[in-house]
Design goal:
membrane; transmembrane helix; Rossmann fold; Arylacetamide deacetylase-like; carboxylic ester hydrolase activity; binds 2-acetamido-2-deoxy-beta-D-glucopyranose; 16 helices
Amino acid sequence: MGRKSLYLLILGVLVAYYVYTPPPSDFEDPWKLIWLNAKMKTIIHLANFIELLGLYNFMDFIKILLHVKEVPPISDENITVTDTTFNHIPVRVYVPKKQSKALRRGIFYIHGGGWTFESAASQNNDLLSRWTADRLDAVVVLSNYRLLPKYHFPIQFEDVYNSLKWFLRKEVLAKYGVNPERIGLVGSSSGGNLAAAVVQKILDDPESKFKPKIQSLFYPTLQILDMDTPSHRENSNFPPFRQLTVRLWSEYFSTDRSLEKTILSNQHVPVESSHLLKFVNWSSLLPKRFIKGHVYNNRTYGSSELLKKYPDLLDVRVSPLLADDKKLRSLPQTYIITCQHDIFRDDGLMYVTRLQNAGVSVTHNHIENGIHGLLSLSGLKITHKMKNQYLSWLRENL
Ligand SMILES: *[C@@H]1O[C@H](CO)[C@@H](O)[C@H](O)[C@H]1NC(C)=O
Ligand SMILES: *[C@@H]1O[C@H](CO)[C@@H](O)[C@H](O)[C@H]1NC(C)=O
Ligand SMILES: *[C@@H]1O[C@H](CO)[C@@H](O)[C@H](O)[C@H]1NC(C)=O
């Protein structure tokens, strides 16, 4: 072996060591996860470096490297797919071709991707919407919303809200042959955050006569107040990674990097807002088995100046877990998927507890060997099973 190849080998081993994370022992396809982890970690490190050099914005650079594949609206033998706008918001609509005597169910789907990396044209979202429309014989609306890093909260919330409100209008539902009594609101990850927030608000909106009958949230992120939950501690090294997660949360409000540091150190809640912590208190809201050896640390409170600068930080539309019990009691029947090896696991678990305490009917599917974004991973048995469980729940409850 020449000296050059020896150096290359050493470099290779170092890089592999740096990006390697041992997968959970129960994960179905460990190599897939090792590869995904290594890819994501490399992309994040590279993006950090490129940003440090001042060459490119971290978020824009990740967007390019991740290269989430987009597809045009192509109809197939069963489903007609069209791009249109609802209240100026671009949406993609999936309508079954088969004649139907009865009005159909309607699904309004809000995609994930950290408010940044995906759109209604992303292949994973297209596949899931097409599949749902076909198998459930439902009209599926896949809504866009304006993305980070260019647009910040509340733009994302408002885009989704406005497009949902448009869909819920009598004429629009009639046009697509949708039964106003059978509408479901579905979202995954950051889209689950938007779905949960939007459904809380639309219930009180007198302009919107029709309300969703159910909500389904797939591994949603539901609160920004506590970045030190057991699932944050345990899964910081699995996608979407703690570093990226906190950056995205911070970018949701501002491009100011000092906010990110404050959130990362969990010092972004000022003492005068400490009463809100009970809504996200994992020590009381998580089932015991998820707390295990974790200790609920006393907080270091943040400055009031921070809240003055970023008043949206503690907005209920940002953290749907901040809704009080009275609000939660009015929510529709709910289906929540959480994954064990997911940084957002405890957000979902706490919402399950709080909704159940408020008397809402909740079906909770906890995937013991699951990671965040499972629905977008193809070829896994567990993904297949999870999709079918979701589908049967919709058939029964919507
Ligand atoms: C269309 O529906 C038929 C009958 O359910 C099914 O066998 C076929 O795979 C579907 N086509 C697509 C593209 O999903
Ligand atoms: C969180 O819950 C624990 C256990 O129920 C309790 O002792 C603690 O005071 C709570 N803390 C906050 C901030 O609500
Ligand atoms: C938190 O503060 C309380 C009261 O100040 C104290 O009794 C408790 O030991 C502290 N807990 C931890 C984990 O530091």
